[in-house]
Amino acid sequence: MGVVLLAAACGGAGDDESLGALEHPVLLVGIDGLDPLVVGELIAEGKLPHLAGLAERGVLGELETMDPTLSPVIWNCIATGQPPERHGITFFSDAEGRPFTSNARRVPALWNLVSDGGRSVDVVGWWNTWPAEPIRGRMLASYAAAAQASVIWKSPAAWKELEEQTWPPTLVEELIPHMIFPGDVEVVMNRLHEVFPRPHSSFGEVLRKSQANVAWSLAADQSFAGVGRYMLSNEAADLTMVYMSLPDVAGHGFWSFREPEAFSYEIGAEARQAFGDYVSLSYIEADRLLGELIAAAPKDADVIVLSDHGMHANPAARDDPSQGATGHHLDVPPGILAAAGPRIERRGNLLKGTAERSLGHVLGVAPLVLRLLHIRQPEHWPGVANQAFSLAGCLDLEWSTNNPALTTASVDRDFRAPSASRIPAANLDDEFLNHFSGIGYGVLEEKE
Ligand SMILES: [Zn+2]
Questions:
Q1: Where along the chain do its domains lie?
Q2: What is the pTM (predicted TM-score) of this model?
Q3: Does domain 20-447 have CATH number 3.30.420.40?
Q4: Residues whose CB is under 5 A from ligand 1 (ion)?
Q5: N or C: at which end does the chain have fewer Cβ atoms within 10 angstroms?
């Protein structure tokens, strides 16, 4: 009896009387860089059936984001419910130039809070999750998003050698059949041309590099979606989180083909023919993978899909054809949020209308997820304390009236202390960092 009382008194965010039976599991899919304008256009053309289906059965609108608008910073805001100065992942890499790793995060993320709250959670490919943390569930950690595909995933053997990629550690073997191990560039390029047309002639260095980035990112997304499908169809957790990156990578490299009028130089007819549809095709592929995840999820799940920011033409590349990143998002363009399920309000596609298109803020995502899992929300989180950040308007009105938000004091001080970012393997250092800057992150670094 004494033990029970102690557990109740010292429990985590939801480890108390608030933890009732869970009515429905939650699937949270993050797709980097999906832009509201492009999504709206492609839905109108009937090209994104799965996002359109969510809008039809639930809601689709804009999602306001953080400034500075940098992907790892925002994905950590989404996962922790806290701003960068609190979660500590303030850029792509730390002062030593090392990509931030999970041990550097200063506050608990959803997977920690959900585990402490007595629910199960599976996480696939989320930014800055390597080394995989011990959770009540399964994790395939990501070192630094798409950049890792070309360096770490050379073969199943090389991949297995890298430690702490999964939780539990023995999960490694189980995931291998669901991953793409590129082996060499040709395999990756063949995958690429199943989705994107094969150019009839060769192109310059800038386009070849952008195309290679799209190829690696596609291999990563297909792997993450494959692992996500496997987890969803084998004892799905109460919360499943899957991250994909293709629309962001394609948007950075090929925006000038989508919006040539924003650039002062001519884009040749041959290049236009080869790459003109890259941005649209990356959205269509992301939607296809999303459809596979939704199909594998429990039928009664609440599904939430979101992007960390939108994208548009990069004014700094306007007059410079040698500039690879023709799409950018440094000026806080909103992303999107789509949701549907038994506890989501049917509000339809807000991107179609001229009225309010925004559903809330990226800092509202973690509170929304905890609420759906009946776990107490830390009352100091901006998305809890400030109505303007909240996404509670996505909830079915009757359900939300009957299930008011439960809050708790901050749980941050109970979290392990942060430590310096780690490098996954000694010999990986230079090769990885070169590639990391090669996919455009170095360009961002120069701006700081
Ligand atoms: Zn991003």
A1: 20-447
A2: 0.92
A3: no
A4: 32-33, 71, 248, 308
A5: N
